[in-house]
């Protein structure tokens, strides 16, 4: 299937789309290039007003946009509406702060006057995933547009209506024609875009394979990239933790978005002293979760976004069981239409399984036991990923050890890993490089120009 909206809860094809022809794609690149020539000179205060308008539109129509998200990728409706509202937040954040982030910074040197200036680069290509189909795009678009760049979006092929809705929100908000365009194209056309001189840089959020492929093409063309890739985040609970809070948060951290989040807690590493208690409570809470129509607000889990994702996840669960893991809950494909998968728990996972090097992208929790903090950290760091990490302890030296030794782009103590416009977001190791959000995010796609004036 090419570019299409298929309802993951029913399997029904809602709408199919024709890929852009070469001539249509060329016209969009030309429009982006022309738009940049003018857009780069718009005043920051003007861009800020447009971005605030976008935030207003998102908030006013959050329910309608949420329904588009849910129908295309199956996220429970309350989470879809919350995602839209979070997009408004990131728009307001950059509308309010970009001028300060990108203000010239005087630097004392031997010259009469020196400073750094932050100038836009041009058209930036954003290759985006379906799992947070609005949020991933807005967290790129808000800083990119505020910096004076123009955006070209190649969204995942299963969320074309989200992609088109985002383009129209930004257009309705007032951004000039060509400042932000959606390209309905398949992944096979990304390489040619990276070779095009009108595109200056690219960002990709998605799987490791897609990231490597984009980075390779970008490298051939010496284009800057930011990559936000997969993760297999640890969630470590030590003996001193507030157990009830840790267990409740563990459920949310694993099951939000039906488990399809890069920063979902995927491996639960529990200290022996509380492991039985944690396991009993965790299992009970997971058992209580219900999957079903994501438009019905009582359902906790929706379907997985595509049939392929469900098949891959189920295969991984079966492989883990074959490799010696104990299936404690779920793990069976339900009958009936849609890509539903039950909340699943695996424990007693030996080392050397696929849990050591693969991401499980769905509602499957992996439980490990450890007897020391060193063992917990070694297990946490064993995977090739390094996106986020959550650790639960009230013992200060343990907190410091987690902060310094966990290999991750973010460490959250006594809380779940989440993105926030005010905090930089990104990974290390095979989770990618570069940062989004906060000051660091807006500085990824700018020319940091050194200016030295001798009078
Ligand atoms: P995906 O298959 O990698 O797709 C992501 C995007 O990349 C889509 O637009 C896809 O287009 C495109 N793409 C795929 N192969 C490509 C290639 N060879 N060259 C250029 N573009 C290519 O990932 P997904 O299954 O949609 O998303 C799930 C993954 O994203 C998970 O690994 C998750 O952890 C990761 N993720 C990471 C973050 C983060 O911030 N670190 C956030 C969210 C998700 P098509 O749809 O047309 O194939």
What does this structure look like?
With 455 residues, this protein is α/β, with parallel strands linked by helices. The protein folds into two domains: 250 residues, Aldehyde Dehydrogenase, Chain A, domain 1, CATH 3.40.605; 188 residues, Aldehyde Dehydrogenase, Chain A, domain 2 (3-Layer(aba) Sandwich), CATH 3.40.309.10. It contains 14 helices and 20 strands. The strands form five sheets. Strands 12-13-14-11-10-16-17 form a seven-stranded mixed beta sheet, with helices on both faces. A six-stranded mixed beta sheet has the order 7-6-5-8-9-19, sandwiched between helices. The protein binds NADP nicotinamide-adenine-dinucleotide phosphate. The site of NADP nicotinamide-adenine-dinucleotide phosphate has 30 residues, from strand 8 and helix 8.
Assembly of the depicted chains = single chain
Give the domain tally.
2
The largest beta-sheet arranges its strands as 12-13-14-11-10-16-17
The named CATH superfamily of the largest domain:
Aldehyde Dehydrogenase, Chain A, domain 1
Q: Any idea of the CATH topology of the largest domain?
A: Aldehyde Dehydrogenase, Chain A, domain 1
Average pLDDT over all residues: 98
Largest sheet, in brief, is: 7 strands, mixed
Q: Could you tell me which ligands this complex binds, including any ions or cofactors? A: NADP nicotinamide-adenine-dinucleotide phosphate
User: Structural class of the helices, strands and pairings?
Assistant: alpha/beta
CATH architecture of the largest domain: 3-Layer(aba) Sandwich
Coarse shape: globular
Poorly predicted regions: none
Would you state the CATH class of the largest domain? Alpha Beta
Q: What is the number of E strands?
A: 20
Helical content stands at 40-55%
Please give the count of helices.
14
Strand fraction equals 15-25%
């Amino acid at each position: 299937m090419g570019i299409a909206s298929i309802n993951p809860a029913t399997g029904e094809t809602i709408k199919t789309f024709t890929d852009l022809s070469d001539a249509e794609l060329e016209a969009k690149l030309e429009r982006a290039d022309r738009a940049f020539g003018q857009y780069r000179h718009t005043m920051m205060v003007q861009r800020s007003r447009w971005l605030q308008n976008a935030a207003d539109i998102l908030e006013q129509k959050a329910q309608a946009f949420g329904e588009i998200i849910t129908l295309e990728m199956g996220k429970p409706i309350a989470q879809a509406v919350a995602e839209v509202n979070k997009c408004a937040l990131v728009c307001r954040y950059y509308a309010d702060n970009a001028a300060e982030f990108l203000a010239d910074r005087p630097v004392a040197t031997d010259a009469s006057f020196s400073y750094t200036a932050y100038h836009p680069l041009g058209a930036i290509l954003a290759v985006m995933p379906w799992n947070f189909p609005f949020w991933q795009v807005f967290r790129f678009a808000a800083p990119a547009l505020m910096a004076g760049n123009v955006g070209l979006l190649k969204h995942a092929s299963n969320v074309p209506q989200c992609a088109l809705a985002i383009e129209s929100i930004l257009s309705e908000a007032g951004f000039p024609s060509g400042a932000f365009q959606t390209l309905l194209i398949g992944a096979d056309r990304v390489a040619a875009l990276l070779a095009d001189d009108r595109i200056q840089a690219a960002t990709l959020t998605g799987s490791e394979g897609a990231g490597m492929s984009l980075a390779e093409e970008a490298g051939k063309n010496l284009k800057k990239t930011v990559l936000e890739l997969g993760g297999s985040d640890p969630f470590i609970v030590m003996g001193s933790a507030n157990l009830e809070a840790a267990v409740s948060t563990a459920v949310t951290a694993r099951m939000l978005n039906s488990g399809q989040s890069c920063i979902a807690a995927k491996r639960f590493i529990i200290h022996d002293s509380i492991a039985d208690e944690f396991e009993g409570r965790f299992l009970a809470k997971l058992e209580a979760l219900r999957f079903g129509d994501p438009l019905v607000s009582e359902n906790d889990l929706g379907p997985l976004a595509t049939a392929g994702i469900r098949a891959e996840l189920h295969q991984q669960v079966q492989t883990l069981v074959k490799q010696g893991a104990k299936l404690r809950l779920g793990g069976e494909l339900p009958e009936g239409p849609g890509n539903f998968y039950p909340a699943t728990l695996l424990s007693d996972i030996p080392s050397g399984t696929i849990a050591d090097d693969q991401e499980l992208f769905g509602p499957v929790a992996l439980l490990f036991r450890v007897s020391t903090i060193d063992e917990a950290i070694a297990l946490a760091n064993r995977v090739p990923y390094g996106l986020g990490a959550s650790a639960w302890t009230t013992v200060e030296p343990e907190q410091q050890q987690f902060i310094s030794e966990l290999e991750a782009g973010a460490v959250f103590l006594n809380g779940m890993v989440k993105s926030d416009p005010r905090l930089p977001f990104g990974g290390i190791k095979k989770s990618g490089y570069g940062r989004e959000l906060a000051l660091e995010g807006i500085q990824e796609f700018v020319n940091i120009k050194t200016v030295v004036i001798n009078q």
